[in-house]
Amino acid sequence: MKIVVTSIFVEDQDKALKFYSETLGFVKKHDVPAGKFRWITLVSPEDQDGTELLLEPNNHPAAREYQKKIIAEGIPATMFGVEDIHKEYKRLIEKGVKFTMEPTEMGEVTIAVFDDTCGNLIQIVQK
């Protein structure tokens, strides 16, 4: 068994697609109609056959409440791995991304947290 798709709730699919592709650099894999929303997935440019990230609308009240509560507590919705966190931090700052935590060493890893502008905090990690 392996993880094929993981999802993240977003307030606006178009805004999220733009942020995750243009700002973060993920590659759109699927964008198909799914009722009044779309099935939009992205993948890492380094692993285009790997796990897909689904940009899932937060239209359900439970999804909105979950999203509100974890962001209020400062809890990242998900984590992405990076090769060089300081380089990635600088690149994202230059693109206007707002960080809530600068790169910080935590034992054997270094982490940073940013706002994805779509209702989530995202953690990046360098092992």
TrEMBL record:
Source taxon at top rank: Bacteria
Transmembrane regions: none
CDD domains attached to this UniProt entry: VOC_like
InterPro entries (UniProt xref): Glyas_Bleomycin-R_OHBP_Dase, Glyas_Fos-R_dOase_dom, VOC_core
Domain VOC: 1-127
PROSITE patterns: VOC
Protein name: VOC family protein
Provenance organism: Halalkalibacter kiskunsagensis
High-level lineage: Bacteria, Bacillati, Bacillota, Bacilli, Bacillales
